[in-house]
Design a protein that fits this description.
With 563 residues, the protein is of the alpha+beta class. The chain has three domains: 77 residues, SH3 type barrels; 130 residues; 241 residues, MetI-like fold, CATH 1.10.3720.10. The chain is 60% helix and 14% strand. The strands form three sheets. Strands 6, 7, 8, 9, 10 and 11 form a six-stranded antiparallel beta sheet that branches. A five-stranded antiparallel beta sheet has the order 4-3-2-1-5. Strands 12-13 form a two-stranded antiparallel ribbon. Helix 2 packs across helix 15 and helix 14 runs antiparallel to helix 15. The chain is flat.
Length: 563
Amino acid sequence: MAGSSRRADFRSARRELAWFSRGEPFLWLNAGGVTLSLLAVAGLVLLLAINGLTHFWPAPLYEYTVDTPQGPRTVIGARVQQQVISRQQAEEAGLAVGPGAPTVSRLLVRKGNRDLGTGEFAWLLQSRVAAESVPPDLVRIERTEWGPAIGRLVALNTPSGRWRMEEDPLAGWQALQAAIADVVALRERLSLLESERVRAINRSLERVRLEQRSLGDAEASAVAQSLDEERQQLLRDYGAVQSEMRVLRDSMDEARLLLAVADGQTVTLPLSSVVKAYRPNTMSTADKLEHWLVAVWEFLSTDPREANSEGGVYPAIVGTVVMVLVMALLVTPFGVLAAVYLHEYARQDWKTRLIRIVVNNLAGVPSIVYGVFGLGFFIYVVGGEIDRLLFPEALPAPTFGAPGLLWASVTLALLTLPVVIVATEEGLARIPASLREGSFALGATRYETLRNIVLPIATPAMMTGVILAIARAAGEVAPLMLVGVVKLAPALPVDGQFPFLHLDQQFMHLGYHVFDVGFQSSNTEAARPLVYATALLLVILTVGLNIAAVVLRNRLRERYKSL
């Protein structure tokens, strides 16, 4: 019996040793690590989606009657959050808590009407709420400034008539929607005039000014006269556009609405500041879904307002995509050429090894250091020299000697250059030497071998480097704050005016937008959902760019796998 027990123990030990020798524990560890990583990423995306996308859903509006030491008080707004806090926390927050349990429940209500000076958000102790209702006549009005206005419609005054809601609520509401549609159309026309005609005239005036400034004493007087006539015509065009814009603004200011807010106050709102108005308490599920889809589209396709705490992120989307594409166009050829030289042409001695060590170490340099270098070298030195040589008439005002799209792209290209070099060189190293020797044996030169054999096979590795570069560059924020990104750009870097891509302009970026809205906003509670929505959009955009690069890489791999 003892011998059989020892043999069984021996066989068990052998099986355990074989299990370890096959490396199965490490396989399970790797699988567990990958699973945890995927779950963490999925949890992050789910958190961003829930907190960001629910912001666009029309939340119901409540009317609370709150008992205060001064008497009953009415609060109207949307419920944002409910918390259970300790009694000490409530007292430190200035909430009057009576005797009772050690914990209290409080509600965060967004009551809007920030222009009244009473605060846009309010915390309410649930124990102090005497009554709660969801009236169907409450309306939420989105505005171009001061955030939303919440209350009850009293009257509407337009050039076409006057409506009192208590007399004919349906007709008044329809008239309000028609008036808002007219104002929105006028606002879009006004924005089109500002973005196209006014901007084009200003650029032409600046061009004429610089040409007049560059004229020397030996220049013909006819040229100066022609420029002066062109300038006068541009000024007349500008005056005509200003007159047209003034008429549009006057038309927008003619309509007014009266809104009854909490505690019996009545305010007058110009329709020129109104974006939309809706009654969430009377909307069906289908109506809310339609409203949500429209709100998400407006978030993606409109400009920001209210210091980026309201409105859309369209300029940030355009700026991010354009910057990443320009960066990829810059880093790909330089990274590939550097890798090809190091692996195919350079002598493999201590100098080459030292260069590889330096390249690998550059990948670990903090990104803000690249931003400082870009500001000091690219902008001040290179950009200043370009201005001195090519744009002397504009000095001392900088053209390329200031932060802009070009220098932001170049800085990120320098930041991601080690990634492309290392990935490309790894791909070149995996190519069998027999392919090169066979090509040489057939009479091909080194250049022909490189062009027809080596580079096509290494293309997937190059694309891998580009994918990693795009993934890192899209999320970088620190260096961009020094070399081109701004809180609010006056114009897009891409438009319909020559040269169509304006590399000298500053731009907006989704990553910086998240930082600005989350940490620099004066209205933190209102901006918090947009932080989640913008972060989710940045993740989706980065994944989309990477997927496009992966698809291209796979197609190239299928094309050249027979080589």
